[in-house]
Every structure is written in C-alpha cells, then in structure tokens.
Amino acid sequence: PILQGIAAAATIKGIQEEGVIATAKHYILNEQEHFRQSFEWGLPNAMSSNIDDRTLHELYLWPFAESVRAGVASVMCSYQMVNNS
Predict the structure, then answer these.
(1) How many CB atoms lie within 10 A of CB 39?
(2) Average model confidence (pLDDT) across the chain
(3) Residue 3 — φ and ψ, nearest 5°?
(4) What are the pLDDT digits (tens) for 46-78?
(5) Fewer Cβ within 10 Å of end Cβ, the chain: N or C?
C-alpha cells in the first residue's frame, strides 16, 4: 500500500501539472464486478465487501489518503456496500 500511495501521488501530480483533472478510483473496496448493485440482478441487497477497521485503514485507505495529499481533483466511489452499509 505504501508503494501504491507513492505511485498514485506521482501520477496525480503528473496528470494535473498538464492541466488535466485526475481521478482516484474506486473509493473503496471495489472488489466485485457482479452483484455490486442490487437492481442489476434482482437481488434485495447489493454485494457487500466486509473488512475489519484496522485492515481497511492500514491497507486499503493508504493510497487514497496519499491521493488526497497530492491534491487529486476528484474521487470516484465504488458501487457495492461496505460492511453491509
């Protein structure tokens, strides 16, 4: 996650120095292509990516935090639920 954060920050700075808006995506836990949204498959609930708080913060959020520190202009969210919410 540290290397990914460094690479994301460098990429964002390079893109935005050229006058183009960079987007960090998909925030967060976009790990499932199917069943992300309930209406796609006629299910009562969308798929949920469930994870404990420590793992979420220490592994998955790090690159997004570095993206924000680098001044990313936009962040695209993921579609599925996280921890059933």
Answers:
(1) 7
(2) 89
(3) -65, -40
(4) 778 899 999 999 999 999 999 999 999 999 988
(5) C
| Alpha helices for 1-85 (secondary structure H) | 2-17, 38-41, 53-55, 62-69
Tell me the C-alpha distance between 49 and 30, whole Å: 8
Note the maximum CA span of the chain: 44
Please, how many CA atoms are within 13 Å of residue 20, restricted to the half-sphere of its CB? 8
Q: In this structure, are strands 81-82 and 48-49 parallel, antiparallel, or unpaired?
A: parallel
Residue 85 exposed, middle or buried by CB count within 10 Å (0-12, 13-18, 19+):
exposed
Amino acid letter, 21: I
Q: Angle of helix 62-69 relative to helix 2-17, nearest 10 degrees? A: 30
Q: 45 is written with which tokens?
A: 């609930």
